[in-house]
Structure formats: structure tokens, C-alpha cells
Amino acid sequence: MIIKVFATFREICGGKTIQVDYEDNSRIGDLLDEVISQFPAMEKEIFTTDRQVKQHVHVFINGRNIIHLHGLETIVKPDDQLALFPPVAGG
After folding, report:
1. Is the pTM of this model over 0.90?
2. Looking at residue 37, what is its pLDDT?
3. Burial class of 12 by CB neighbour count within 10 A (0 to 12, 13 to 18, 19+)
4. Whole-angstrom Cα distance, residue 66 to residue 72?
5. DSSP secondary structure code for residue 8 in this structure
6. What is the pLDDT of residue 25?
7. Strand 2-5 relative to strand 17-19: parallel, antiparallel, unpaired?
């Protein structure tokens, strides 16, 4: 499964996308764990110390933020489009 990454996440991951293993009924939390296994620096970028997605990090499935779905428990389907956005500042 392909996950698109943006801004500073691209620098950490070395590109615009990450390829992760997908199994039927994978949860977004499982896929983020796979991202971290490939890119350990992403853990402190994505998660708080109590394993919650940081407030200004956005995880999207088919254009919908997981906070409006079932959070890390959201089931991902094989044809879903995933994207990770880091906090962005500027004006």
C-alpha cells in the first residue's frame, strides 16, 4: 500500500511516498507502525509519548481526517488513498 507524505515528512522518508505492507482489515495504526519500522524518526514526528497522533499531524484516508473516523482504529481498505501531513507553519 502506498502512503503519500508531505513537507518535512518527505525529507525524513526520502521521497513523496512510502510503500507499506497491507493485510486485510489493517488499521491505520498498524500501517503507521509499519512506517515507523521503516523510518524510526517518524515516531517522534507522528505520535505523542502516549501513542496518540500529535494534534497538528493530519492523517487522511480518502481525503478524510482520521479524527472524523475511528482514529487509529480506522480500518483501511486495499484501494484507500492515504496521506500524512506534518504540522505546517507560516503566513
Report:
1. yes
2. 97
3. middle
4. 7
5. H
6. 92
7. antiparallel
